[in-house]
Each structure stands twice: as C-alpha cells, then as structure tokens.
Amino acid sequence: MPLPSPPEPASLWQALSAAGRLSRRWLSDDHSRVSLAALSRGSSLGRPLGELRGRSVLLSTRDQLPAALALIELDGIARRIVLCPPDVASAHLPGVMATAETDTVVGDRAAAGLGAAGFVPAGTGITPGASDREPGEATEWILLTSGTTGAPKLVRHTLATLAGPMLGGGALGHGAVWSTFYDMRRYGGLQIFLRAMLGGGSMVLSSALEAVGDFLARVGARGVSHISGTPSHWRRALMSGAADKMAPRYVRLSGEIADQAVLDHLRTAFPAADIAHAFASTEAGVAFDVGDGLSGFPAAYLGRRGAVDMRVVDGSLRIRSARNSLGYLGGIPQPFDDDGFVDNGDIVELRDGRYHFVGRRGGVINIGGQKVHPEEIEAVINRHPEVQMSRVTARKNPITGAIVVADVVVAAAHAPLDAVKGQILDACRGTLARYKVPATIRFVPAIEVAASGKLARNNV
Amino acid sequence: MSTASQIHALFAEVAHDQHKVLAPLSDELGLLETGLDSLCFAIIVARLEDMLGVDPFSADDEIDFPVTVGDFIRLYEHAAALAA
Q1: What DSSP string runs through A80-142?
Q2: Listed residue (A168, A169, A136, A148) closest to A49, CA to CA
Q3: Do A435 and B38 touch (CB under 8 A)?
Q4: A-B interface: how many C-beta pairs under 8 angstroms?
Q5: Interchain contact A31–B (C-beta under 8 A)
Q6: Which of the residues in chain A have pLDDT under 70?
Q7: Helix, strand, coil shares, percent, chain A, to 5
Q8: Positive or negative CA dihedral for A134, A138, A141, A142?
Q9: How many Cβ atoms from other residues are within 10 Å of residue A174's Cβ?
Q10: Whole-angstrom Cα distance, residue B8 to residue B25?
Q11: Contact A147, A171 (CB under 8 A)
C-alpha cells in the first residue's frame, strides 16, 4: 500500500521563517547565542551562498552551533550535506567523503585539512549582507550511524523524511524553548533541532566538553520548556543532583529502551511535566511516542492505520513510513526487507497487552546456548531504589562460554553494599531465568555513556 | 583460609543461591555427583578468578580436566602457587 507523502517544505530556511517571530528566536551553546533575526540579515559562512549551490558538503565542526547555523543556510542550496559528529574517527572520514562524493568541507579550523576539497569556514559570527536563500535543491541530508565498530554507515534523509514526525503540528510545541542532551547531528538531536526550527521555537545546544550539571544550569537559565535525551542521558542527569535546576514541561526519551524505573524516576523529578518515550532509529525514523508513563507500548499500535506501518517478524519490530530514511549511500545492503519495512533488530515481547523492548538482536549474550538480552536484566536491576545505572555484560567463561555479570552504580552510601547486592540478586532470581541472574555484581563509580548518548557496550 | 576451604565454602554458597542440594563434599566425590550443574560451575570459576586471581581453565597450559572435588581443588592450589 503506498503511503501518503508529507508535503515537502522547500527548505529549512523557508520553513523556519514561515514559523515566524524571528526576532524572538535564537540558538545558543555554552559560548554564544545567535538570533535568527540576525541570521536573516547575514550569513554564518561569510560568503555568498551561491558558491555552494549544488555542492556535496561535509559539515564538520567540534561545536554544534556553527553546524546548526550552516545547516539552516545550506539546506535547499547544497545538493548533499553530510552531518559529521565530532566523535567520528578521523580514519573513517576519507571513506565517508568518498562515498558521499563531497567536493566541499564546511567546518571549523580542525576540518580545514580534510582533503583537497574546497573549504568554507563555519562559525557563529554573522557577516551582514543579503543572502540568496531561494531553494534550488532537494538537499539530501546524510546522517552517520554510531556503531562502535567499523566504519559508520551513511544514512540518506531529506528535510521531508526528517520533518515527517512533526507534520500535523502536535509535536512542535509552538514557541517552545527546546534542548537535548544529544548532539544535534545525530537523529535524536536533529529531531529536537527541527522541532525548534519548524515550530517557531528556540534551542539550547549541548556541548560534549561540558559537565552535566553545567549544562542543566544553562538549560534552566535559558528557560528550556522541552528537553530530550536517551535513558542513559537522563540517568546521568538524575545522578548529577542538578536536575532541579530546570523545570521542563515536556521530557522526552529515545534511542534506548526506557525501562519503568527511569520513567518513574523522571516522574518523581518532574511531577508536572509530560513525559514521553519515543521509538526511533536513524534508519527507520520516528515510529511512535508513548505518553502514558509506562514502559513498552500498547499492542494496539500495531494495528493502527496512519502514517506508520508496524509489524513484528521473527521477534523484531519492523517499521515502514514516509519517515523512513531513503537507505544507505554506497554499495552496501539496504536496511529494508522485501516489503519496504526497516528492521533495526529491536526485539519485542508481548506481555499483558503491551509490547516491551527486551534488547537488540546484535546484542545477545550466549550463555551455554541460551540467549540473553543484557537490557532485560538491567531493567530488573534498575528497579532497586538505590540503583542509578547498571550495565550487564558477558564475561568469558570456560564452562558455559560466557556468564552474565553486572556493573552497578548506586546512590551515595545509603545502605550497606552487601545488602544492596543481596536485594538485587533476590530481585533477579525472582523474575529472571537462572542463567540470566548475574554471576557477579560489581559496584562501580560510573558507567561510560558513548558519544551517541547510549550505554557503551563492549561485548566480549 | 586455605584454598580448599574457600572452594568448599563457595560450593555451598552457590548451591544455596541456585537452589541445589549439595552432596557432602570429599576429595573423592565426583564433580558430577556434587549436585551442581554447569551453570553453578561457571559461576564458581568466575568467582574464584575474582578471589584468587587465577583461572586455570583459561590458562595457556593444557590441563587435565578435573573429575573429582579433590582434582578441582588441586588445580586451583597449583595455579595459585604458580601465580604467587
């Protein structure tokens, strides 16, 4: 069945202008604040945009604000924009640039040396002057996947596929001040950036170099009303003790499984806020939001008629919609099955009328032939009131190939650790098959969160 | 505590955690007759590695796979002595 295509905004600049109120809207990071009105009277790229028409651009900056400004200016002008987060290993960049056939690098000083292509400096200073922003291209936006091993994949989107989840306006929070823990060059961050730009709002950008508490203070000072992050981002924010520095009306989680514990903790921290968790991926786009405060999603979502078709095949959730990416660039297998559904390998289980995410197909631990998803064990551990964060991994074992072990972060010394360990193990034994109960529990001061905002998982 | 008594205590602890009935331990008792299954032994080997700093099963040297509780204890005593 063909799906209805969303109406296509001609360019990001046109769409954000159409949302109006430019003089009261801005983008900020930990150094600067740039008014959209100023951007309407000049350029952050310091040269006529005409020079960049039809180019394939690698957009590479350490900070997010110059990238956000350049993106606003280049959509509809460039043929293709590769959004390069700063954590992409430099060894991968030549391959990325070759696959994307980039002929121009727009970036900060660190990016000036990237190949012999034309270089345009990106910054946060606005050079006054008329810019011809008449869109001439349906620009392709290339997002890079954040896999921990191997080269990133280049995922093709357009403004239309990315803005698909916002059509209808309900998700836009008109005039809101948005923020996100995500880097705005990743799918989850880009969703928030576009909501701010298309919905007449402003945005506070995060910085990889900033402590969580400092970011939250900035978010509070700027009056952020809508904010998103992964469950790992949110656990870290709650652990920082600085979550009370902000007072959001809307709290959103995406990118990882939102277990009941993190939803409950956020409800306690922000009693007046709407709390929603979304299922989305770079390849599939946003599939749905869940706003009832419970983990998982109602099984009835699978039968809903609307913009998104969903089904479960071989245990994994498959998504087909106009929000899907257009696939990968380069000669690699595409993420679609025969019917055009994207399979991200997210495994679901039906319990009591709700589908619950239990883990990823690629993240399975094999314990003597039995399959274990680390996430389902973490969800049980995280229910303990003293636990702030946990990570379950496989440890090599000569008898069963591997056993389950857990790293756990607890709140500062409330209860004796041996008692906490015993209670966690009791909870695991009460709900999980015995091969899923951690053989050892180690209390650690912190658990690494990757640049993608997801728990760093280094499987054996 | 000697390696032997540490191992005896660990067998008892894991048997309790895993709801297994542990047979009275002696050096001659076969590992398969202890009442512990392979998951129990997987856990015991992991915990012993944490306690003693050695995992004789994963060491490079070829080992004679232990058959009795006594073999199992001697394997760890030997590995711990080498590591010391």
Answers
A1: EEEEE-TTS-GGGHHHHHHHTT--EEEE-GGGTTSSSSEEEE--SPPEES---------PEEE
A2: A136
A3: no
A4: 40
A5: no
A6: 1-9, 115-116, 147-149, 167-170, 413, 458-460
A7: 30, 30, 45
A8: negative
A9: 13
A10: 7
A11: no
Closest to A399 measured CA to CA, from B64, B80, B71, B46: B46
**Could you read off the pLDDT of A339-355 as tens digits, one per residue?**
999 998 999 999 999 99
**Residue to test with chain A: of B14, B41, B43, most A Cβ within 10 A:** B43
The single-letter code of the amino acid at A447 is: I
Question: For position A6, what pLDDT does the model report?
Answer: 46
Total-model pTM: 0.91
Give me the pLDDT at residue A48, please: 78
Is residue B60 over pLDDT 70? Answer: no
Q: Do B46 and A429 touch (CB under 8 A)?
A: no
Residues 364-383 of A with CB under 8 A from B: 367-368
**β-strands A370-372, A365-367 pairing:** antiparallel
**ipTM confidence score:** 0.91
Query: What pLDDT shows up at residue B81?
Result: 87
| Nearest residue in chain B measured CA to CA from A367 | B39
- Number of Cβ within 10 Å of residue B30's Cβ equals 12
Q: Which residues pair with A423 in a beta bridge?
A: none
DSSP type of residue B50: H
The answer to whether the Cβ–Cβ distance between B42 and A368 falls below 8 Å is yes
Q: What residues in chain B have their Cβ under 8 A from chain A's Cβ atoms?
A: 17-18, 38-39, 41-43, 45-47, 50, 55, 57-58
Mean pLDDT of B40-48: 95
Residue of A nearest to B14 (CA): A439
